[in-house]
Amino acid sequence: MSRASIIFLLAVVVCSFVATYNAINMALGHMRATIGAHQDADWEANREGTFHGASETLGKKLQGTWKTSRKEGQGSGAVDAVIPRPKDKVQKGEKRLFHVAVTTNESPYNRWQCRIHYYWYKQMKDREGSEMGGFTRILHSGKPDHMMDEIPTFVVDPLPEGMDKGYVVLNRPWAFQQWLEQAEIEEEYILMAEPDHVFVRPMPNLAADFMPAAYPFFYIEPKKYETLLRRYYPKDKGPITNIDPIGNSPVIIKKTDLQQIAPTWKNVSIAFKNDEEVDKAFGWVLEMYAYAVASALHGVSHILRQDFMVQPPFSTELDGAYIIHYTYGCDYNMKGELTYGKIGEWRFDKRSFSGGAIPRNMPMPPKGVPETVVRLVEMVNEATANIPGWEEGQQR
């Protein structure tokens, strides 16, 4: 090949490279401009409270249900945009700590439960196998109380007067939203717990890298209430089975996911409460359904963990569970037989102590009562014996 031919070929290669480089740059520039414009438009829409990702009907239904002044501006009645979940990775062997968060009001009834809850959190936190991080009692009374020095507490505002219509649990999603927006939370994951949870053993992070973990409740039945739920979870979002049979607690979830879900959860809860038919159908579990719907709207599914907790007296064996949830009354005769629905000769029911702290040294159940009930009373007695200043009937 002649020298002239070689020079000609080199010139062709260089020109082709330059042309290709320019073409790629032009294409990338166009893509950046297009994506940037879309992002700016979405941000502006979100800033103005426009609902994205659900039906126009749902947007109109929720629009205006949440309008109240906040410390940093005005709230919005719209559900936030459904934003894809993060794709970050967790390194193998890295401890994935989760922050334990409990919402509560200032009532003596919730206060003594929180004290027992926090006692057992401290007992389990540093044991082998635990991935429990920090702890926060989210107090939605709007003002500090005398428990601030005993339990790490973050004070948030309650809903505007009358908005909860006597359903105090409606404050929970709003409390979580404020805490997530205002507090500094070091951990990447959050466990949403409740005052009447007792940690039975050290808890690892049950969530997967990109999937939260939740306890499945048999009485949360999205399929049964599909007609009602389709008002808030339209068919274009997918099958009704996308709504998990869960509540918000117990749930271990990435902080970034919960930051996206919480405003939607709040707005759906309020909309449910203002929908007479939905309110009547869901009753005291209304806020649980609202969390399940809000999660589905954001495309978040949960790992369902039966071993998350047990609920005596219906759960009779611990079966490796991490939490005892003592929401139900436990009534037995002296033969150790359950008399549920009828006050037993022996009973343990948190509602018996709604006016003040439970007494120390509660009587142990009779022989034959399931291990879940026995363990619960043992743990309550240990906590009350060791918490300083515990007084029966204490209201402060």
TrEMBL record:
- GO cellular component terms given for this protein: membrane
**GO molecular function, a single term:** glycosyltransferase activity
Q: What is its main location?
A: membrane
Q: Provide the Hydroxyproline O-arabinosyltransferase-like domain boundaries.
A: 98-391
- Transferase as a keyword of this entry, yes or no, is yes
Give the membrane topology, semicolon-separated if more than one: Single-pass membrane protein
**Localisation per UniProt entry:** Membrane
Does Glycosyltransferase count among this protein's keywords? yes
Q: Which residues form the signal peptide?
A: 1-23
What are the protein's UniProt keywords? Glycosyltransferase, Membrane, Signal, Transferase, Transmembrane, Transmembrane helix
Q: What is this protein called?
A: Hydroxyproline O-arabinosyltransferase-like domain-containing protein
What is the source species? Answer: Klebsormidium nitens
Lineage from the top down? Eukaryota, Viridiplantae, Streptophyta, Klebsormidiophyceae, Klebsormidiales
